[in-house]
Design brief:
homodimer; Rossmann fold; 6-stranded parallel sheet; 3-stranded parallel sheet; 10 helices; 11 strands; 42% helix
Chain lengths: 281, 281
């Protein structure tokens, strides 16, 4: 039986820590504030917004909601982003994506100030994860993997870590974060030959393939820690990760469940970034 | 006997190709121009400048030399960089570093336009190597490794590539370039445990440890290709790489010599970037 690396325990610990940090900031006259910029009324956005607002409220972070209609034009959206960049009372900005197709999302991302980009979507933020400049923020899901490993006391120094997936949202940034923690990091992807032989040799596997069952019993070995970033709906309508939990869990030493793993830590990281941005501002 | 991956052959092929490209650009009325911005008279800078100018001349790229005294102040240097950013007749800028200690080099790097940063020293360029946006340029030495592999027809797709070293100048960007070529990429460094077991399992090793003898016979196995980025002076005053050539060469399939390997391709890549920037501008 593998140890279950539950996200809730991590989120609870982060929440307690953040609550203290927010109290200290408020005592200094700083009121940490997250602006949530939403275009339209997509169900996914509304659901994530609800979770983020609840988490913000629980630690005392204020939320400023900016909602634009689904048919907003580029200039109006751009101007809303520039206003948030300039607004000193706003420390972090969460902008939902994908934006409606008529908008140039790339151009919008390039305008958002990296130091307020608490969701890690701008080129400046991503570049700072690579260069280690600390100017922007890592994408929340990538950072959530590290928070889980930290919380459960899994030291990364000198460990062989394999990342399955090379997306700019998760695979690539999490590889940089692992490297910054002194792991020996390998990135696998769809063109990797004999992936099981690569993943079996790791001590830590981050699965961010974006596909259910991408990692099964063949890919793992005894003693490993598996962090499963995937969120998929299977044929029975159940939420499952990218790792085949039933076959992987009996072999490895520790694994994050899905649901209840990485996903439960993501909004916490978002709010943590806001608190950090407020402290730095 | 390993195949020697000589840099000269790569440089000759790149030079021939660039000469054609420059002729075509000139026919369109574009005169590819590199500005070389040097502060002071450091020997290393003068020697690299000489090589770059010779290479530029050989393919028909114009060079504009900007020389500032070693005691130049920050504002004057900053203004020189801004002038080069604005100058439409300049397509690429090479600025030598390290700058004299009284100057804030980081601030200068942040000002240079990534699209003219043919030496890959700005955060924007480095970030673009990570995000794949194509906006800036990879550091020349990192790109030179890829040019050598390309020239000798060494396909990277699905290959296991190990990079030894994680500097922002070479190790990190070359890992991203290998990943973009669909290799399965592992980054090793000083905190890696049992590095020989990691490097022995690779098909391609990029050695960028910055230390003579960092890779010896224990680290390699038959069939491998070794690209040695190191340039060190040994006890006998001879130029040597990071790999111990005498013990590694008999085992592996192919290896770059030092001198005469990666170093001979670097200025070619610099000029290639200028030609590319001119074509894009």
């Amino acid at each position: 039986m593998a140890t279950l690396l539950k996200g809730k325990d991590v989120a609870d610990a982060l929440t307690a820590k953040m609550t203290d940090d927010v109290t200290a900031l408020k005592a200094r006259g700083v009121n940490p504030t997250l602006a949530i910029l939403r275009v339209g009324e997509r169900g996914d956005d509304l659901s994530y917004e609800k979770g983020a607002m609840k988490r913000a409220e629980s630690v005392g972070v204020a939320v400023k909601n900016v909602v634009l209609p689904a048919d907003v034009d580029q200039a109006t959206l751009l101007s809303a982003v520039l206003d948030l960049n300039a607004d000193k009372s706003v420390h972090g900005v969460l902008m939902f994506s994908p934006l409606p197709k008529h908008l140039d999302e790339k151009a919008i991302r390039e305008v958002l100030a990296p130091e307020k980009d608490v969701d890690g979507i701008t080129p400046g933020s991503l570049g700072s994860v690579f260069t280690g400049s600390g100017k922007g923020f890592a994408p929340c899901t990538a950072q959530a993997c590290i928070e889980i490993l930290d919380h459960y006391g899994i030291d990364l120094t000198g460990k062989r870590a394999v990342v399955v997936g090379r997306s700019l949202v998760i695979g690539k940034p999490v590889a940089q974060l692992l490297l910054a923690k002194n792991a020996t990091v390998t990135t696998c992807h769809t063109r990797t030959v004999d992936m099981p032989s690569v993943t079996r040799g790791a001590e830590i596997i981050i699965v961010a393939a974006g596909k259910a069952g991408a990692v099964n019993a063949d890919y793992v070995s005894a003693g490993q820690t598996v962090i499963d970033v995937g969120i998929n709906v299977n044929e029975e309508g159940k939420l499952v990760g990218d790792a085949d939990f039933a076959s992987v869990e009996p072999i490895v030493d520790a694994i994050t469940p899905v649901p209840g793993g990485v996903g439960s830590v993501t909004t916490c990281v978002l709010i943590k970034h806001v608190v950090y941005a407020a402290a730095r501002a």
